[in-house]
Amino acid sequence: MASKFGLAGGIPERRVRPIWDAIDSRQFKNALKHSTSLLAKCPNSPYALALKSLILERMGKSDEALSVCLNAKDLLYKNESLLMDDLTLSTLQIVFQRLDRLDLATGCYEYACSKFPSNLDLMMGLFNCYVREYSFVKQQQTAIKMYKLVGEERFLLWAVCSIQLQVFCGNGGEKLAMLAEGLLKKHVASHSLHEPEALIVYISILEQQARCGDALEILSGKLGSLLIIEVDKLRIQGRLLARSGDYATGADIYEKILELCPDDWECFLHYLGCLLEDGSSWSNGVHNDPINPQKSVDCKVSQLPDEVVHIYYPYILYVVCIFCCTCILLAHLFMTFYAEFDFCNLDVQFHSRISTSLAFVKKLQADTSDDFIRCPYLAILEIERRKQLHGKGNDDDIVEALMLYFLKFGHLASFSSDVEAFLQVLSPDKKTEFLAKLMKTLDSPATVPTKALGQSITIFKIQELTGNLYKLPVLELESCAVQMVKMYCKSLPLSKDLDPQESMHGEELLSMVCNVLVQLFWRTRHLGYFIEAIMVLEFGLTIRRYIWQYKILLLHLYSHLGVISLAYEWYKSLDMKNILMETVSHHILPQMLASPLWGDLNNLLKDYLKFMDDHFRESADLTFLAYRHRNYSKVIEFVQFKERLQRSNQYLVARVETSVLQLKQKADNIEEEEDVLKSLNSGVHFVELSNEIGSKTLTFNEDFHSRPWWTPTTEKNYLLGPFEGLSYCPKENLTKEREENVRRVVEKKSLLPRMIYLSIHSASASLKESVEENGSKSGSKISSELKFLLEHHAKMLGYSLSDAVEVVMGVSSGVKSFEAFGSDEIDWINFAVFLNAWNLNSHEPLQPDRDQCGRGIWHVVDTLLVKYISEKIKSMESLVCSPRVDLPILVQLVTEPLAWHGLVIQSCVRSSLPSGKKKKKGGSMDQHSSLVLNGVRDSIQSLCDILKEVAKWIRGQIDRPEDESVENILSSLRKKEQDEGPGRVFHVLESLIPSINEAEHGGRICQELKTWSALDVARKIVTGDSTLLSQFLNICESKIKSFQALKQQIAPI
Amino acid sequence: MTTIRRFSCNDLLRFASVNLDHLTETFNMSFYMTYLARWPDYFHVADGPGNKVMGYIMGKVEGQGESWHGHVTAVTVAAEYRRQQLAKKLMNLLEEISDKIDKAYFVDLFVRASNTPAIKMYEKLGYVIYRRVLRYYSGEEDGLDMRKALSRDVEKKSIIPLKRPITPDELEYD
Predict the structure, then answer these.
(1) Quick one: A869 and A922 in the same domain?
(2) Fewest Cβ atoms closer than 10 Å to its Cβ: which of A397, A508, A589, A965?
(3) What pLDDT, on a 0 to 100 scale, did the predictor assign at position B111?
(4) Is the pLDDT of residue A736 over 80?
(5) How many domains does chain B have?
């Protein structure tokens, strides 16, 4: 091969080097110059051409690059005597991959391998191509060829991994696992295995076939020595033993692990599972949902399977006897005997095993001197929980165990999350009793101040967790918040010497205060509490600006208040990037979708999609990296992870919403809108997506743990509804419900681009047809497709087309109220808009008894828009009175249905203009067109008027004197401490300021607190509100301008 | 209460509460996946009860001859689980793997010169400041290269501090 003789692609390396250097330093023009002179000397060198195509691609000249690259490929194929080296091929591969033509790259390698069937480098290149294409079968075949060629273990494992991928990610059946096992077995017999990862793969293949016994045999044999870390080997052994049902030996193994790692909680759960012969922790898939895992391990209540037959046998007999009505007395006798005998046996077994576990845990406690090891202590709680689940324990023992755990670890921040699962099994009375006992400990607090503070915080957290806090009456709840904030102020000196980067003692208190204040707002609807919650968190961030928990709470508070611009500011300050965009952007994305901050939304969507698409592009290369480094388990993991992200619901939503955003942004100009539609292939792909969404498996990768209690998922916001007396809002796992919702949203939204496209064409066709008199084929095609989509849309709203028409007509005429639309108001009005567009070009009457075909239902759409928008404006008070929860709907009304309706109008006006091709015969207006244009004129007028109303309302809000608004915000907080109502907490914080001194609080805290100003925060809220409304005003004004221009255009017609 | 196990891709979807901390960098996917593909033994996560992510460590092994060493790229613990010596446990694990499996001479790490709490913690764990790297962080802040010798470096040669600071160009590894 050429490269073996110091040549690169058949060309001396000294000639190629300057080109690569220029490429590496991104001097592409220079690189191209070198490449041209190289090609002058070697015009038929595929490598020289491949280099040129690489440079062209980097310069952004994709078409030229492809053409040169294809040229190089042809030369490579044609010239039989030429060398087929990996360097040329890999250069071509890079270019083809960047041009999204993996098929061509694969073709090159396939050709090369057919020419040089025993060249390992080329085969590896081909394998890599198949990895990029996710062609698992071809990967397997190529790897086997390599294995046969050189007999190396790694190539066999490449083949085995490719087989596993067919099973896990493809359509491969279980028989394939047998094939993989056969291959490995044969290799082991002749060559053994040399890599720990190879052994792991071997074991996993046997496990897949439920052959744990065989796997254990291999692990305990010579191959087991490949695993150097003893604990790793023991863990696998324990799992295999449990899965094979050998619980007794499994328990022994887990004991050994716990002796080596006494703090391993998962291992303890496995140990207990083995002792109680309960395989739940291996089979229930604790890790099934990696994002929202279960808080406690599920366990079967009827365990110890040996006894199961004995238990059920008399029951079966009993039932049979009763059923046959032969001898009831005999049946009862049977029961009494067996029940006493077997339950007694079972009890003894259970008690004995529980005692064993207790003894072992006590031994672990005794052997452990490390104060930070919590597992053997929490283990007591788990044992008590199991006892209770089996009906053998009692709440008192759990409370006692909880108290012991508290006395040892109650000062730790993780205490409450450690015990959360155990609190759940307590009755409400016992929870209260536990809390009372905790309170009593406050009489003799820990001597170390940070410990005492930690314990006090824990008690508040437990109150929150059990829901007892929220059962308090308003006044007491308020006092509780005051107590918390006082504790926070008192704890500040403890952090005086801490580095500003370090978390301060007592930081959680302000998050809890915020939770209580929002609860008070929900109960009383007094906005003062809400503002107070904002102030508390802003105060906390003044002292230390890095606390992300405060930022997330603030983000949601500002979102609910209606000041999304400030919410977005805090979101940005969290620096959420890369994979965090998949897991955490749910905090802001839904609100932004309904906001007028189009520039920011565009960035948000663009960054997220780029991250995901980049990963999809790079993932295969990283998978190949795992192959090369012989980390086979990672190969499977990477492919599965890529699939998981590809099926992300958020990714799907973002793709649809990005297109909808583009359509919203260009809706005032029909030509620009048509360009957007063209780039979206007239919405055809999205219709396909809408049709397919029902059968797609979606993944939900959002991490909801950091969401506040009042909005546990993106779909829920308790504050929007009345106080429900919910004392505790658990963070339910609502994946199923969410899945339905996402499917519905995507299904509906994906139809939008196509419906807009068809509506524009339907409107213009209606006027053209009337001019052409006989109608056109394309017109009727549009009409039938639009009707089909309208039927689909109506179905999604739960109606047939005719019934949906009835609803729309009813609401518009006032016969039905807006309530008929439910929460789908935007979808309903969109439906009306598209219905009008369809009707313009339809020969079918909308309602059987009325002849409306061909003229549209302009007045219906106008009335709906005008009525609905006016209602929303009226419902919104000034920001200082209540949160502007209706603002997102108002923004959506203007930027979606009104905008789409505007496009239908623009289309009509354009088609009726006497210019260019659209010039009408004789220039006179026929009756049909005239009727349509009258509707258009009225519509323009109505929309202009209502938009002016919106603009007037916005100006009214913006033009309010800033000082007045600021004063209003602050006035709700100016209370003396002893007064009831909002402001008590705020008062505690404000009175802290004068008492702050360097000696007690340290220089940094003093310095930071000097910058605190509630006035500044209030001003920031008012300014943020103005910023947001100004953006909305710009949108409205642009639309008004566009409608006014249309009015002028249409006037002379 | 810690189950320390190998980090997997799915953990990337669970570590938000750790990575939202301002000092914890969220790298791009190819960075994490390169570590997973090449040095899976050096990338571990600590799980707490309820399967919560408590923290994680990522690192690698590299170098030649007597420079063959383990490197800590990132070690981080969620706020809820701090002050429980979890970072120490994670560091010990990486050191053990470098020492026992890969037979490295030392473990090293870089830390911002201003990050006093972290420097103090590493010193407690037996690390010494080997050298200062001028403007290592984004061309602005100096970094400190801290090292801890492993059993293979019997004479502890690897940790004898350099007398002069170096520039990032002089670093042997990225």
Answers:
(1) yes
(2) A397
(3) 95
(4) no
(5) 1
CB A31 within 8 A of CB A19: yes
Instruction: Please list the ranges in chain B whose pLDDT falls under 70.
Output: 174
> Structure pTM?
0.90
Chain A residue with the nearest C-alpha to that of B2: A264
Do A822 and A942 belong to one domain? yes
Tell me the sheet residues that pair with B57.
B44, B75
Residues across chain A? 1053
Contact A417 B8 (CB under 8 A): no
| Per-residue pLDDT, A571 | 97
Q: Which domain holds residue B79?
A: 3-170
Nearest-angstrom CA–CA distance, A1007 and A330: 87
Residues A171 and A34 grouped into a single domain: no
Alpha carbon of B108: minimum distance to chain A alpha carbons (Å): 22
CA distance B148 to B129: 9
| Residue A715 domain-assigned (yes or no) | no
Do A39 and A49 form a contact (C-beta atoms < 8 A)? yes
Candidate from A293, A295, A546 with C-beta closest to B22: A546
Residues A86 and A176 reside in one and the same domain: no
The predicted model gives A460-467 an average pLDDT of 92
In chain A, which residues have their Cβ closer than 8 Å to the Cβ of B11? 290
Contact B81 A413 (CB under 8 A): yes
Do residue A622 and residue B30 have CB atoms under 8 angstroms apart?
A: yes
Residue A320 lies in a domain: no
Question: Is there a contact between A937 and A1050 (Cβ–Cβ < 8 Å)?
Answer: yes
Nearest-10 Cα torsion for A864, A869, A874, A877: 150
Which residues on B lie below 8 Å from A295 (Cβ)? 50
The alpha-carbon gap from B160 to the nearest alpha carbon of chain A, in Å, equals 29
Domain count, chain A: 3
- Mean of per-residue pLDDT scores for chain A: 88
pLDDT computed for residue A327 by the predictor: 46
Confidence of residue A299 (pLDDT cuts 50, 70, 90): low
Same domain, A771 and A889: yes
Domain identity same for A17 and A109: yes
Domain limit, last residue, from A228, A262, A278: A228
Mark yes or no for CB contact A378/B1 under 8 Å: yes
- Residue at which a domain ends, from A924, A954, A984: A954
For position A733, what pLDDT does the model report? 59
**Which B residues, 4 through 23, put their C-beta within 8 Å of a C-beta on chain A?**
4-5, 8-14, 16-17, 19-23
Residue A285: is its pLDDT beyond 50? Answer: no
Q: Give the one of A264, A417, A578 whose C-beta lies nearest to B80's C-beta.
A: A417
DSSP letter string, A15-75: HHHHHHHHHHTT-HHHHHHHHHHHHHH-TT-HHHHHHHHHHHHHTT-HHHHHHHHHHHHHH
Position A338 pLDDT exceeds 70: no
Residue A781 forms part of a structural domain: yes
The reply to whether A70 and A155 lie within a common domain is no
Q: Which of A231, A414, A624 is the best mutation test for B, with the most CBs of B within 10 A?
A: A414
Query: In this complex, which of A412, A618, A623 lies closest to B29 when CB atoms are compared?
Result: A618
- Pick from A412, A584, A631: which is nearest to B84 by CB? A412
Q: Which residues of A touch B74 (CB under 8 A)?
A: none
For the domain that residue B161 is a member of, what is the CATH number? 3.40.630.30
What was the ipTM of the complex prediction?
A: 0.96
pLDDT at A534: 98
Cβ distance A418 to B3 less than 8 Å, yes or no, reads no
What does the pLDDT read at residue A372?
Answer: 87
Q: Looking at beta carbons, which residues of chain A come within 8 Å of B19? A: 580
* B30 interaction partners in chain A (CB closer than 8 Å): 618, 622
What is the average per-residue pLDDT within A55-63?
94
Nearest by CB to residue A420, choosing from B8, B47, B50, is B50
Kindly write down the DSSP assignment for every residue of A77-93, as one continuous string.
HH-TTS---HHHHHHHH
A809 & A939 share domain = yes
CA triplet A447, A451, A454: central angle to 5 degrees?
140
User: Structural domain of residue A852, as residue ranges?
Assistant: 751-954
pLDDT, residue A166, reads: 94
pLDDT exceeding 90 applies to what percent of chain A?
69
Average pLDDT of the residues in A396-401: 94
Closest CA to A364 of A502, A508, A257: A257
Of A417, A582, A631, the CB nearest to B52: A417
pLDDT confidence of residue A954 = 96
CA A888 to chain centre: 22
User: What tens digit of pLDDT does each residue of A524-549 get?
Assistant: 999 999 999 999 999 999 999 999 99
